[in-house]
Specification:
Elements (H helix, E strand, L loop, with lengths): L6 H25 L29 H5 L14 H20 L3 H25 L4 H13 L9 H26 L6 H43 L16 H23 L3
Helix pairs in contact: 1-3, 1-4, 3-4, 4-5, 4-8, 5-7, 6-7, 7-8
């Protein structure tokens, strides 16, 4: 994305592209879990079903101008929509600033990877499912575009995918044998395999480590809150289940943006 553009203009263009794709991700997040087309019909109000005009569908700005409500029926629009648009835009800019403005790398690998992680996070939070269309599609994309990622070979990408799948599959199998029930969903296994295709074996191990710590802390705090509010008995805390996909995404993003920094600090014990 050089083309003689200034750094500020590159950031602005990336932010705008992120907003536009974030708007599309909102469609993906709503429709893919329901098995609906992401192409047709066009965007419409979820209550009155009126089709939205283009000026009511401008990422972020339409939400602000309409004060978070449908122009026709006044129904409140979920704040999730502008949050996803803004988050995607920030991630797009961060990728360019962190790794450079190579259009080949950004368009073919980095931005699609980030878009997949955003979509999977919000789908898993709402539906507790990770669609194969996203995780397996992302796995294929990660393996097919390894060559635009500096320092990542095809064997590392393939090894990361295999390690990601094998690691969680083994844990799920052992847990099922010991407890007689599933402890990890198949969606988590495929997601970690996808992450491995993009980040390699080291990225898988780092993702598992960070997500396990973060997930344990959040899960225990969440469960204790439910116990105090009377929603759960204390004896049920260890059976408390929350979607693990978002924690894998947090671990993957941490390694993606800061992996080399964290590795340097670890090697130097700082």
């Amino acid at each position: 994305m050089d083309y003689g553009l200034s750094e500020g203009l590159k950031i602005l263009l990336s932010f705008i592209l992120g907003l536009i794709l974030g708007s599309f991700l909102n469609v993906v997040i709503v429709r893919v879990p329901l098995g609906k087309s992401i192409i047709t019909p066009g965007s419409q109000c979820t209550r009155c079903r009126r089709s939205l005009r283009w000026f009511d569908n401008v990422p972020l700005f339409s939400f602000l101008c309409l004060r978070g409500a449908c122009r026709y029926c006044g129904a409140k629009i979920s704040a999730r929509y502008p949050v996803i648009e803004f988050l995607t835009a920030l991630l797009f800019v961060a990728a360019g600033v962190r790794f450079g403005w190579s259009p080949l790398s950004l368009v073919l690998r980095d931005w699609p990877f980030l878009a997949l992680l955003v979509s999977i996070t919000f789908i898993d939070l709402e539906h507790r499912v990770i669609p194969d269309r996203l995780s397996l599609g992302g796995l294929i994309l990660g393996l097919a575009t390894f060559w635009v990622s500096p320092g990542l070979t095809f064997l590392e990408s393939l090894g990361g995918a295999a390690l990601g799948f094998g690691f969680f599959y083994s844990l799920a199998w052992i847990y099922h044998r010991m407890r007689g029930r599933m402890g990890l969903g198949g969606g988590d296994i495929k997601l970690l395999s996808m992450i491995g295709a993009f980040l390699g074996p080291t990225g898988v191990l780092s993702t598992v480590f960070v997500s396990s710590i973060f997930g344990s802390i959040v899960g225990l705090v969440w469960a204790r809150v439910d116990v105090k509010m009377g929603k759960m008995q204390k004896r049920d805390m260890m059976r408390f289940a929350i979607p693990f996909g978002p924690f894998l995404v947090v671990g993957a993003l941490l390694y993606y943006f800061l992996g080399d920094v964290l590795w340097y600090l670890w090697m130097n014990r700082i």
